[in-house]
Design a protein that fits this description.
62 residues, mainly alpha, rod-shaped
């Protein structure tokens, strides 16, 4: 799904750039530039949530 979202943002940037919508193009470009960090943070959050669930499950098993 990440690839589809990234591809959509690239497409939206391209459209905004072609139409001269500078503010929108800037926003999409900023999102594109931030994409690796967004993916990294999402992965860390997923790991943290999984660890929290394991902890909660261990507490419930007692």
């Amino acid at each position: 799904m990440q690839d589809k979202v990234r591809d959509l943002v690239y497409r939206l940037f391209s459209i905004a750039d072609q139409k001269g919508w500078n503010n929108e193009a800037f926003a999409y470009n900023t999102l594109i530039q931030s994409w690796p960090d967004i993916v990294d943070r999402a992965a860390r959050m997923k790991t943290a949530v999984a660890a929290e669930k394991l902890f909660d499950d261990a507490l419930m098993a007692k």
